[in-house]
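Running this now, will post back.
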Amino acid sequence: YNLIFLTAEGFSPYAVDEKLTPTLYKLVNTGYVFNNFYTPLWYGSTLSGEYANLVSQIPLDGGRISMEVTGENKTDMYFCLGRMMERAGYNLWGFHNHTFDYYSRDASHPNMGYENWIAVGTGFETENNSSGKPYWPQSDLHLIDTTFDIYADSEPFHAYYMTVSAHAEYNFGGNAMSARNKDAVADL
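Update: finished.
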């Protein structure tokens, strides 16, 4: 089977709605449910959850040290998801709709097998507003729509997506994706 794996930054089941977000709703309600699962509290940001997802380890210092240092030092990441899929003969791709080197992902992600690391600055074309300025945050739908054809014919494939559209600010003035969908949630 092919594998598309997402780290969905800032998403919560509380924001998932059967009519407004039917795909997320289906994933939340009919996917694997681990009733006895818990996440330990650790200080961190996006990178801590991403590190835990890709490496299956609790990160040090909120993930920054773990992710950045393993990339910079080219630590053997033999048991991380990307390297295991690579050994199984999969073609690997990694995508992010933000800057390619944020949190040193330009070092960490290729070190985990995602040599094809495509983000803003390495081939991902941003979606821009009418004045030519990139939206903040970028649309995850745009990311997937513009990248799927890159790997779709390279079976077996494993595509990893680090999303950004649910990033703060959580309001209509500071989040282009919230503003874009304001009418859809007006009655909530």
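The longest helix spans residues 140-151. More later if anyone needs it.
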